[in-house]
Amino acid sequence: MKPIWVVDDDHSIRFVLDKALTREQFSVRTFANPREVLKALETDAPQVLVSDIRMPGGSGIDLLSRVKQMHPGLPVIIMTAYSDLDSAVSAFQGGAFEYLPKPFDVTKAVDLIRRAVEESQREEVGDSAQVDTPEMLGQAPAMQDVFRAIGRLSQSNVTVMITGESGSGKELVARALHKHSPRGELGNKGPFVAINTAAIPKDLLESELFGHERGAFTGAQTMRRGRFEQADGGTLFLDEIGDMPFDLQTRLLRVLSDGQFYRVGGHQPLKANVRVIAATHQNLEERVRLGFFREDLYHRLNVIRLRLPSLRERREDIPMLTRFFLQKSAKELGVEAKRITDSALAEVAEFEFPGNVRQLENLCHWLTVMAPAQVVEPKDLPPELLGLSVSLAQPAEPGVAVRTATSGTVPAALAAPQTAAPESTPAPAPWLADLEREARRRLDAGQPDVWEMLTQQFEGCLIHAALDITRGRRIEAAQKLGIGRNTITRKIQELGLDP
Q1: Average pLDDT of 485-492?
Q2: How far apart are CA 127 and CA 175, in angstroms?
Q3: CATH number at residue 104
Q4: Are 93 and 202 found together in one domain?
Q5: Coil, helix or strand for 74?
Q6: Residue 367 pLDDT class (50, 70, 90 cuts)
Q7: Nearest to 281 by CA among 346, 344, 356, 388
Q8: pTM of this structure
Q9: 19 lies in a domain?
Q10: d(CA 456, CA 57)
């Protein structure tokens, strides 16, 4: 292992850290100013660099910037006085691993440096094995079955039905099926066109799918090509097919049967050279039995069925996916990627993830923005991942619990409203009992603004649940909640629910 470098103009700091780290079997090299460090970096590099922030001949922030240019993966710990809050912020923005406030406890300082060393060694292993990021990730047996199925279907244009829970990655599978088919990037480079049939109002869905002629209806001022035409020569992905209106199912069946369709208001038949891949999280057999889905369309779509496992069925993939999404979030936000400890990963892997991979990705995005340190520890995870109730079990400042819900989860007490008790049972719903207990606890403790705090958290949970169900469509969410669209917009801003 390479030595740990300590740079500080204060001889006593260098001496204390040198002796403490040497006792822990670390090799140490000390420097009195940044110039000495930069010169040494021309021929060598440390395992971890620990630097003061204010020194004659250069600052720790400037040194951090230079070091990150030369060795992007090198953990740098910045030592700073308690009064240097701006400097601490600058350190994190510059990619520091962590900052160490002065005066510091030597034992805690050594523990922090040891964490940095472990992270550095993990980074080295990761760099040595780094390859191009695959389009899909998964080592669990259930995912390997999916990969094998994609491989078997790679030379086929057969219609595929993908089933699986919401957020499990059905569109990724559809894209992979297209890419590796004769129509995709590895074939004739036909387009991949996706449409979520549940996300478009019934009155517009027909036009979205088949297009319309000019003057076909009020507002149709020009001719518009539909998704079938846009996907000509390629693949059309119909997501949430189970929610398609019954009358449109008939038109879709006709296209799949004879390959022809008409634009809305049109009289000239058009030919559709399109491979259809459908997906749903619903039980289509049950919807057929209840008369909500055409049986003949079901059989036409269900030629090959590919079931995508939930994240709960592939927990061994969670650490790899977490690290990948942390890197992805950091790249999207233009910041240094957060690192996560093994103990924090163990906590994440134990969570049920009802929202599956999409929820895990949202969690990593939340951690990238909200985790206080560059290395994520268990205490930095949202309370719901630690088995705590976000909105009712803990006191919190107004809006805090609501913001933690951006990880894609809703507090257990409000996530799924319980079915009302029969009239013969006078007991209140469990979540109401939880609410009353929490209100009593806060009132007994003499906490101020109990009404405002609990109301904000309650409203935030309702709005978050509605937005999750409607996939972020505010007007539809407002309608489901029975409030106006101006009200939901104002509440989202007040409660900090804006993404």
Answers
A1: 78
A2: 28
A3: 3.40.50.2300
A4: no
A5: coil
A6: very high
A7: 356
A8: 0.55
A9: yes
A10: 51
Instruction: Report pLDDT for 127.
Output: 45
Identify the residue with better confidence: 169 or 388.
169
147 is written with which tokens?
């990969």
Which among 377, 370, 354 has a CA at the least distance from the CA of 499?
370
**Which of helix, strand or coil describes residue 486?**
helix
Mean pLDDT of 148-172: 88
Q: State the pLDDT at residue 298.
A: 93
pLDDT recorded at residue 84: 54
Q: What whole-number distance in Å separates Cα of residue 115 and Cα of residue 111?
A: 6
Contact 354, 367 (CB under 8 A): no
499 confidence band (pLDDT: 50, 70, 90): low
Whole-number percent of the chain with pLDDT over 90: 27
Task: Evaluate if residue 409 carries a pLDDT over 50.
Answer: no
**Residue 263 carries which side chain, given as an amino acid letter?**
R
Distance, in Å, from the CA atom of 116 to the CA atom of 181, rounded to the nearest integer, reads: 45
Strands (E), 308-463: 339-340, 375-376
- Asked if residues 441 and 433 have their Cβ atoms less than 8 Å apart, the reply is no
- Radius of gyration for the chain, computed over Cα atoms and rounded to the nearest angstrom: 28
Q: Quick check: helix, strand or coil at residue 76?
A: strand
Contacts of 275 (CB under 8 A, 6+ apart): 157, 159, 178, 181, 183, 234, 235, 236
Which CATH number fits the domain that encloses residue 459?
Answer: 1.10.10.60
pLDDT at 202: 78
Q: Is residue 226 located within the same domain as residue 99?
A: no
- Give dist(CA 156, CA 145) in Å, integer: 18
For residue 339, the 8-state DSSP code is E
Residues 6+ apart with CB under 8 A from 109: 17, 20, 100
Residue 489 belongs to what domain range? 408-499
Do 115 and 159 fall within a single domain?
no
